[in-house]
Amino acid sequence: MSAYGAPRGDADADSSPHLMADDELRAWLRSGGGSPPQLLDNDDVWRKFAPVFRSDFKLVDTWAPPRSPEPLPVPLTAFTGLHDNLIGEDRLVAWRRLTTAFRGLERYDGGHFYLMDRQRRIAAAIMAAMRSAAP
Q: How far, in Å, are 13, 92, 106, 107 from residue 81 at the CA level?
């Protein structure tokens, strides 16, 4: 799992990007990194992409997991950027309760989009985890 916290069972009232005003949503996206200025600063481009962002965020913001899910019978490793200001490590470590084989948290330099400059290194870490989990 990369840069996405475990479901908590309730909607996060403090974080509902799909309900934010345009200026607030643009600022929130800027703070997370990964969105090019050409998208956030150009009003014409923004008008085309804002509904797509809002739709995606609405799905994430309003989805509620099952009340008492059975732990997944698979190994799971959580990956994060050391400076991710969107997802805290506590939310990533919370995956532990949703799997029978939590493999820990791997931290990399960078923010929420840390993996953009480390694709080979992270792919190697995923492959190593898969090899160690194979029977």
A: 24, 11, 9, 6
Same domain, 58 and 76: no
- Beta bridge partners, 99, equal 72
Helix H or strand E segment including 114: none
In this structure, the answer to whether residues 49 and 90 fall within a common structural domain is no
77 and 113 fall within a common domain: yes
Q: Answer whether 93's CB lies under 8 Å from 121's CB.
A: no
Contacts (Cβ under 8 Å, ≥6 apart) of 124: none
Q: Give the residue numbers spanning the domain of 97.
A: 72-133
Place of tokens 């799992």: 1
128 and 86 in a common domain: yes
Q: If pLDDT is split at 50, 70 and 90, which confidence band does 11 have?
A: low
58-104 pLDDT, tens per residue?
988 888 777 888 999 998 999 999 999 888 899 999 999 999 999 99
Name residue 107's beta-bridge partners: 80
